[in-house]
């Protein structure tokens, strides 16, 4: 297998692993936060707006870790800095 | 095995792994959020509309991490950026 | 083993893994949501219709992640984009 | 080992794995839903018919993920699309 | 090892794995459902018949996933579709 | 190692694995059901006969999955359908 | 390593694994049932005889899965059906 | 490595594994049963004798699975039926 | 595979692993903190501002560990100190 | 590596594994029993002697499984029955 | 692969593993501490300042273990003591 | 690698594994017992001396399993019975 | 790979593993202790100073195990006793 | 790799593993004991001195298992009994 194919294979596998494994924690954490928000609104309907605002800030904060993973996966698939590097290295080795 | 076949095999395996593993967290998180919403509505039926709205926003937020995984799997299967690359690399190596 | 057989073997294994692993989360999540709905109806029988509607929306949302897995498995078995590709690559290599 | 035997071995193993692993989640989820239904009926016997209906819809929904796994296993054993393909590929390679 | 022996070995291992792993979920789920039924009958003895009926439907539903596994194991041991196939493939290869 | 020895080794290992792993779920499930029955009898001694009957039906249902495993293990040890097959295949290959 | 030694090694390892792994579930399940019985007797001392009877039936049922494992281990060590078979197969191959 | 040494190595490893792994479940189960007995005696000191008797029967039942493991380990170390067998098989092969 | 390609492959895999695994703990921890905050606000709406401030400080503290992981992943992808080093080492070895 | 060294290596590793893994269950079980005893004495100080006696019997019972492991480890280190056997087998093979 | 490349690869992998795995415990621990603080403030708003101070000291203490990991990762990437050492060793071996 | 070095390597690894893994159970068990003792003293300060005595006996009992592990590790490091044995076996083989 | 490089690689990997794995337990334990302290202060604000003092002693005790890990990692990176040893051994072997 | 380097590598890895894995249990156990002590002091401030004394004895007892691990790690790094042994064995083999 050529070096470029190796890099491609690793990048594909890592991208999938990153985005799938990286969805585990945020999804569970958001589920917990949302469940608490729903219970809280049921308990104190008058504070619904405060609770919603707090929930959305929290969800955004938790979602950010999932976004990191998605961004890294996209970088690996579409803007992988090592692909050109390896191509050049191969060429300079062959040059 | 040729490089293209290797890339194909990795892509197939990663696509399946991504979408199946990536469904674990969101499904559990959504189940938790939905359970909390149902309890909350039973406890405070008057706030059902507020609770439903909060639930749907939360479900959408959690579902988004599953969507990321599905999108990555679809990209790997139908728009894999490395497939053409490797084909070209192979051709240029053979050229 | 020829390349086509390798792709076939990987696709078969991945299809089974995807659909079986992908059923774990949704089944547990739906079980939790359904359990909460049943408790809620028992607690507040008057809101049964609201609760049922909320439950069905939630179940559909959770089931969607299982559907993603089933779709990917079906694509791998019956509409695998890499099978033709590899066949052609093999032919062009042999051509 | 010939390619056809390899495909057969993978298909057998995957079919068993799929149906056995795929029974874990649904069985646990259905157990949870049924337990909740039994508690709910004991708590509110007057709503038994509503609760039963909700339970059966939920069980059907959860069972569907087990059915997906069973269907995939049956396809792998009795209607495997890759078996003919590989046979033909082998023949064309030998032709 | 001949192909037929390989298929036999895989089938034996898969049959055992399928039926043993496939008994984990249903047994736990049935245990949970039965426990809930017993608590419910103790709490509301007047509804014993309704509760028993609901329990038996639930047990049957859960048991079905174990039955799937047992059926697949029996198919693998006594009606394995790949055994004849492989024998023929071997013969045609040797023919 | 001859094919027959290979089949024997796999059968022995699978038989042990099946019966030991297959005892995990039923034992835990039966323990849970029995515990619930004992609590229920203590709480409602007048319904002891109904509770006992329900318990025994449940135990039988749960035990059935352990029986499946034991049956498969016995088949593998004493009525293994592949043993004769492999012997014949070996003979026909040597014939 | 001769075939007979291989069968012996596999049988020894499987016997130990079977009996040790097979003791995990029954021990935990019996512990749970016994704990429930002790709580129940403390709560309702007048029903001690009914509770003891129910406990013993349950323990026997749970213990049965451990017995299965012990029986299989003893068969593997002292009445292994494959040992003679393999010896004969070896002799007929050498014959 | 000679066959006898291989059998010895496997027997040593299996004996240790059996007795150590086999102590996990019984120890946890006995701990649970004992804890329940102590709580029950504290709650109902008048039934201490009944509770003690029930506890001892339960402990004996649970301990039995640990005894199985210890017996198998002792058999493997001091009365291993395969050791002589293999020695004879080796001699007859060399004979 | 050249050294540079090896370094590239390891860096890609590590970057994905770091950011995905590193999102598990923070997401769960933030979910817990947010859930507690929502419950607390519902319980004591008058202290909402104090609670929000405490929540945001805590979220920032927890998020910092996810940031560490993201930073390390970015360093590995875009400012990897070993890439130049290895290139130079290779050149000096070839020089 | 000579056979005797192999047996020695396996014995050392197994002895350590046995005694360390075998301490997990008893330690946890004893901790649970002791915790229950302490709670029970606090709740019913008048029964302290009965509770202590029950606790000590239980601890002895649980400790016994740890003793089994320790005994097996000591046998493996200082009275290993296979060591002489293998030495003799080696000598008779060389004889 | 040259020694320097090997050291680089190990350092990269270890740095990522260290910082990602090392964020799991602190993030969960801080989440727990923050959740307790929020509950405590809601319960006793008058002690908010004491509680905040205690929380910040605790968070700093917990964060310190994450800092250790980050420091080690940075040392491995940017001030690795073995890199120069190995380079010199290689040179002295080549010298 | 010589036999003595092999034995040394195994002994070092096993000693570390034994003492570290063997500290897991006792530490958790002692933590639980100590926690129960502290709660019990807070609940019933008048029985502090009885509770302390019971706690110390329990801690000693639990600690004993950790001591077993430490003793085995020390034996492996400083009084390993196999080291001389192997040296002699090596000498007699070379003799 | 030279011996020195091997020692360096192992040291780097072990240092990272030690400090990251060693942060898991202390972080969780400190989180639990801090959470209990915060609850306790909210419950009994008058004892805040006693509680703080007890908390800090406990945190120091728990932190000490993390410090052990950090110290070992630093020793491995900057004062590794085996590095000189191996260099000397290599020189004496080459000498 | 020379024997001495092998022993060094194993010792380094084992030392790190021992101290890091050995900190898991004690840290969690101490966290639990400290949490219980803090709750107990809040509940019964008058017994603070008795509770503190009991806590410190318990912490010392639990810490002892972590100390065992640290001692073994230090022995492996700085007073390893096998290092000289192996050196001498190597010399006598070369002598």
Helix content estimate of chain A: over 70%
The CATH architecture name of chain A reads Up-down Bundle
Give the low-confidence spans of chain A: none
Order of helices and strands of chain A: HHHH
* Radius of gyration based on Cα positions of chain A: 21 Å
Largest interface: A-I, 59 and 51 residues
The fold-level CATH name of chain A is F1FO ATP Synthase
**CATH class term of chain A:** Mainly Alpha
Distance between the termini of chain A: 20 Å
- The amount of beta strand of chain A, in percent, is under 5%
Please give the count of helices of chain A: 4
> Outline of chain A, from the CA principal axes?
rod-shaped
Q: CATH homologous superfamily of chain A, by name?
A: F1F0 ATP synthase subunit C
Average the pLDDT over all residues of chain A and give the rounded result: 87
Number of domains of chain A: 1
Say how many strands of chain A there are: 0
Site (Reversibly protonated during proton transport) (chains A, B, C, D, E, F, G, H, I, J, K, L, M, N): 63
Domain V-ATPase proteolipid subunit C-like (chains A, B, C, D, E, F, G, H, I, J, K, L, M, N): 13-76
Keywords (chains A, B, C, D, E, F, G, H, I, J, K, L, M, N): ATP synthesis, Cell membrane, CF(0), Hydrogen ion transport, Ion transport, Lipid-binding, Membrane, Transmembrane, Transmembrane helix, Transport
Protein name (chains A, B, C, D, E, F, G, H, I, J, K, L, M, N): ATP synthase subunit c
């Amino acid at each position: 297998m050529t070096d470029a194919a190796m890099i491609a294979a690793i990048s594909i596998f890592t991208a999938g692993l990153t985005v799938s494994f990286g969805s585990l924690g945020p999804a569970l954490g958001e589920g917990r936060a949302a469940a608490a928000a729903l219970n809280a609104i049921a308990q104190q309907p008058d504070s619904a707006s405060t609770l919603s605002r707090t929930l959305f800030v929290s969800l955004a904060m938790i979602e950010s870790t999932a976004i990191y993973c998605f961004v890294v996966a996209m970088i690996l698939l579409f803007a992988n800095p090592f692909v050109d590097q390896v191509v050049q290295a191969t060429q300079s080795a062959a040059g």
